[in-house]
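User: My advisor, Dr. K., asked me to get a structural model of this assembly before our group meeting. I'm new to this, so sorry if the format is off. These are the inputs:
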Amino acid sequence: MLQTPMADHAAPAVALAVRDLAVQFRSEQGVVRALDGVSFDLHAGRTLGIVGESGCGKSVTARSILRLIDHPGIITGGRMVLDPSTPREIDLASLDPESRQMREVRGGRIGLIFQEPMTALSVHYTVGNQLIEAVRQHHSVSVAEARNRATELLRDVGIPRPETRIDAYPFELSGGLRQRVGIAMALAGDPDIVIADEPTTALDVTTQAQILSLLRGLQEAKNISLMLITHDMGVIAEMADEVTVMYLGRVVEVAPVRQLFAAPRHPYTRALLRAVPSILARPRQRLSTIGGAVPHPGSRPFGCSFHPRCAERVGAVCMERIPDPVPPGQAGASCFRTEVPA
Amino acid sequence: MNLLEVQDLQKHYPIHAGLLRREVGRVRAVDGVSFQIARGETLALVGESGCGKTTVSRCILRALTPTSGAIRFTPENGRAVDLATLPKRQMRPLRRHIQMIFQDPYASLNPRMMVGDIITEPLKVNGVPAAERRERLMELLELVQMPPGSRTRFPHAFSGGQRQRIGIARALALHPQLIVADEPVSALDVSVQAQIINLLLDLQDRLGLSMLFVAHDLSVVRHVSDRVAVMYVGRIVEVAPTDALYRAPRHPYTEALLAAVPAPDPNRQHRRRVAQGEVADPARPPPGCAFHPRCPYTVDRCRTERPELAATESGGWVSCHRARELELAGVR
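Assistant: The format is fine. Below is the predicted structure of the whole assembly, which you can bring to the meeting.
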């Protein structure tokens, strides 16, 4: 396997290490292996982009880390270690999802930003009430202090006139302002890790640009470790330091962002990058395509999951064996092709 | 003669309030929109949510009745008709000429019908005999690159991309003269989106399709359209041939839209200017130019006087008081 050290300069500490994470959804129709041995490192103060198409497991990964997987999903293996190799290290996979410790991690250590901010907000309470509650969940402060903190949070996320907007109900706000409130909610417990799951997918393009620039600003100001989940290669190019490419519940490639775009190693990454429509296209320019469609995770092809769609298959091995995963902490591709140095 | 000429189209929704439900204002969802589509041409209508692009397309399909304005449609070998004022009954024989491709391939196909029946339903409704329907079905499946065996299967057996092909085949069944496609690829995965974009390009070449392509994704639009009309708060702010619009936008809003698109290239990340503020509320549009509160080039005149569309030297139209003096940045 072709490997190179991950970081382009002195590697910062690892904030969250995910190792061999496996998640299954079991139903009468059978077992769906939504995640099948997913490993990656989220470095402190950096942005890790997780990119893939539908069914690749990127959202399940986020929900697993926060122990928010809905029935009938269960974590069947692997570890998710916060602060690895420090005295404070905890394996989130070993905690009871309902435990006090896990509740403190949720929001207090790891904030979550949803695609649709109303997932995190109630229609019945004002923005302020919800933020105040979120602040008080993680800090023992008076209601008045929490209200000040909530106003500050709204200002941090760029909401104009926070002193009055704090008493608005979410439905009184535009989609862009609501997503800003969603970000304020994620930050209410002062987490050092933020997971953003398609945070701009539901937004208009000028609003998306504002939210991305807000996230970048907050990350720098608060030194947040950001895990950004998206299907959009443009968002990855703009935001990520490192990228994990997923396909059908497995990591197929890990690389620093510039390397990923300049010299993608996995045939899926290469094909995906060529298939993205470009704002720089020539008139009537056709795109390279990947044949077929992403299979349902319940009917994962044998061997390398990508082999039926792969234009660069090396032989029977692709159909018979699963290529080795990318070793944690390194850049590389999980592909038989890359085992033969070019 | 252009296939479609839309002139000063307006669609207003009254706002009622108080005990007597009196009209206290109007949402000007579409507020004076004009454009043409030539035969064989694809015009993209782009803009952010609430700009009125979908309302325009629904007026053309007469799913909505316009408040005012004209929608002149001239079918091949036919007389020009004004779709805006046509009684619904007289609209029926024209419907075969204007067909729609929907955004959501999961919601737009009847799950209880076999694919063959879905595709040929428009033919059946229009009294095409069974033998002819079967023949046309095979042609259509070939056209959208679906295996002939698909016809006896149900939509659930197919992926999103294949369902979109089925929807396209249905739209083409009656040899329509105009296709209205509302966000036809935005619900699809990237790898599948590319296939459908290529299919649309093939169909444009093979059939000389005329298309109104309603979309928010400026990258997709650059691949498929001949000309682009940019809408903001119910009005067109710029229309231009696709390449000209992207290389040298003339309206500050077009510039802002182009600058906002994240380019899939980490080396191109220009520290871009992000348009501030939010899209204006069409119930209370700002006076003057609706974009002036967000525009970095605003002068006094923009706050009071509404600009009209004026021809540019590159074959487009722009409504900006400062269009002549500004040098705006495109993408290249």
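One thing worth pointing out at the meeting: Chain A touches chain B through 47 residues (CB under 8 Å).

User: Perfect, thanks a lot.
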